[in-house]
Write a structure and sequence with these properties.
Layout: E1 4-7, E2 20-23, E3 27-30, E4 35-39, E5 47-50, E6 67-73, E7 77-82, E8 86-96, E9 105-110, E10 113-118, E11 124-127
Parallel strand pairs: 8-11
Antiparallel strand pairs: 1-6, 2-3, 3-4, 4-9, 5-8, 6-7, 7-8, 9-10
Length: 129
């Protein structure tokens, strides 16, 4: 699969990932109004998501950057690469009984833009419910 490249260079001088306003299970919001989160139209008996909260302890190691690369690690998650200095792994899950959709998107919002990226192949399937 091809990596997805998000270039913030024309929008910001540098993005500081440590400048966090909030971080939850499936989203991170930076004080400069960049929001990164996963999205899936959830139904009653499923849970499909990217566990962005997983990276909260490693975020302080990221140096300011102007480019983010999303690499899909099929069946386990995504690797977020920041500039040339560091990468963070975000596990993705598709927990359901097989009846529902597995579609999963990573959404990056900034400067009145909302960019959606299909990361469905990254989700680890677990049959439950």
């Amino acid at each position: 699969m091809n990596d997805i490249i998000i270039n913030f260079e024309n929008e910001f001088n540098l993005v500081d990932l440590t400048d966090i306003e909030s971080i939850k299970n499936d989203e991170i919001i930076l004080k400069n109004a960049i929001k990164i989160y996963s999205h899936h139209e959830q139904d009653c008996c499923e849970h499909v998501y990217a566990n962005i909260n997983y990276i909260k302890d490693e975020i302080n190691y990221i140096k300011p950057f102007n480019c983010m690369i999303i690499e899909i690690v099929e069946g386990s998650g995504i690797r977020l690469k920041f500039g040339n200095n560091h990468a963070l792994f975000v596990p993705c899950y598709d927990i359901q009984n097989g009846y529902y959709s597995s579609n999963l998107e990573l959404i990056v919002e900034y400067k009145h833009k909302k960019c959606k990226y299909n990361i469905t192949p990254a989700a680890e399937y677990k049959e439950e419910y």
